[in-house]
């Protein structure tokens, strides 16, 4: 597997910079593969949860407060499951829940 050089900073002996990654180091390659696999799995999980919300007619509704998620947020990322207020508050139930 050839790694893209824009993802890794490769240094050569004699560089006056901190050493970069050795793209031939199997530990680095495995670490990158694990990280990539974790990101893909997280993305697939979000997609599956979104499909479940579509099936249950919960798509576009905040899973924390029950208010509609702004269309602009959904256009950016269809897997959004929280309204802007809940995302900003970082809580499971935002102030919209009490309205």
Task: Outline the structure in words.
This protein is mainly alpha-helical. The chain has three helices and no strands. The chain has two domains: 57 residues; 40 residues, no CATH class. 42% of the residues lie in helices and 0% in strands. It is elongated and about 50 Å long. The N terminus is likely disordered.
Q: Topology of this structure?
A:
Elements: H1 26-55, H2 71-76, H3 84-89
Main attributes of the structure:
99 residues; mainly alpha; 2 domains; 3 helices; disordered N terminus
Per DSSP, what share of the residues sits in E-state strands of 2 or more residues?
under 5%
Portion in helices = 40-55%
**Average pLDDT value?**
78
Task: Provide the domain count.
Answer: 2
Task: Tell me the overall shape.
Answer: elongated
Radius of gyration from the alpha-carbon trace, in angstroms: 21 Å
Distance between the termini: 54 Å
Main β-sheet: number of strands, strand sense, barrel status?
A: none
Structural class: mainly alpha
Count the DSSP helices: 3
Order of helices and strands: HHH
**Topology, number of strands:** 0
Which regions are unreliable across 5 or more consecutive residues at pLDDT < 50? Answer: 1-18
In short:
Helix content is 42%, strand content 0%.
